[in-house]
Design brief:
Length: 170
Amino acid sequence: MSSPAPAAPPAEPSHSSRLSTTRSHLAYLANPKNSPAPKSLVTRSSLKTFRYVLKFVFWRLLRYAKYTLIAAGSAALAGTVIGTALPWVGALVFPSVPVAAAMGATTALIKFTWRHRGNHFRAAWAAGGEGRDARRDEARDAHEASEEFERATRRARRAERSWKAEEDAF
């Protein structure tokens, strides 16, 4: 009885094929639209994720560099005659931590309100809005209240009919 032949270890790719694979992966990383995608899903998703992280870090560093340049410019300006003559400008440009927190919270509240209730405000302004004519506001409120009363009455009748139907079923 002959024993099966030992399985040959997988062949190692040559250095030139590794180099060409690495080059194609780097080309995909640099510009995924113009270069072929790697065959492996794991490699492709890893390269896309790495590309995203690199772009994020690049733009974040660029933002911080911009902030640094602005801070350096305002600090240089504060050291001049203008900075001496107008010291409150420094307080506006570089507020203290509580003031900055209050400014940020106010901005966030305004943005949130505008995003979630903006159409309500814009519709009121475009249509003449509430509060401009008291008689029209009262008439509109009375009309809305009567419509709401009619809806509530219809709901109550419907509920009464369904209760009556359940009562008759048993």
